[in-house]
Design goal:
By secondary structure, the chain is mainly β. It contains 1 helix and 8 strands; from the N terminus they run H-E-E-E-E-E-E-E-E. It has one domain. The strands form 2 sheets. It has a 5-stranded antiparallel β-sheet with strand order 6-5-4-7-8, covered by helices on one side. A 3-stranded antiparallel β-sheet has the order 2-1-3, with helices on one face. The chain is globular, with a radius of gyration of 16 Å.
């Protein structure tokens, strides 16, 4: 019985800019947020300088429930870098975020048997805390 693990922490390197920093600041507080255009109301992820719908640069950060659905995923079962073996298998996934319109977030599904993984699976955010106040959203099966 294989369980989806977390990818190696050393694979994650945080680099922010003026448009993404509010997302990562909220994540450090274990809050999942999405950029919402104040001009037309469209949500976008990743946050970008211009709304793809109306080209406005004005955004608000809306807090989401942390629930979502697996849109797509793959299972990584082969180590491509030294030190990855103990982190296998891990599951990169695209998650459709509840309350975010059609917004999707690339993350990982964790703590689930691989045999139970499925497109459409309901998931909830869980947080991986790293040093220096960085928290990364991952998703685990939703028990609700």
């Amino acid at each position: 019985m294989a369980i989806a693990k977390r990818p190696p922490p050393e694979l994650f390197k945080l680099a922010t800019n003026a448009w993404t920093k509010p997302f990562w600041d909220a994540a450090a507080r274990h809050s999942l947020v999405v950029a919402q255009c104040t001009g037309c109301g469209a949500c976008r992820m990743p946050p970008t300088p211009f709304c793809p719908t109306c080209q406005s640069q004005q955004i608000d950060w809306r807090t989401l429930s942390g629930l979502g659905e697996v849109y797509s995923y793959t299972v990584v079962e082969r180590a491509i870098l030294p030190g990855m073996t103990e982190h296998l298998p891990y599951v990169p996934a695209v998650i459709t975020l509840e309350g975010g319109g059609s917004v999707r977030l690339i993350s990982n599904v964790v703590d689930v048997e691989l045999a139970d993984l499925a497109v459409g699976m309901k998931v909830m955010v869980v947080w991986d805390d790293f040093s220096e106040g960085v928290a990364v959203p991952r998703f685990a099966p939703w028990a609700g």
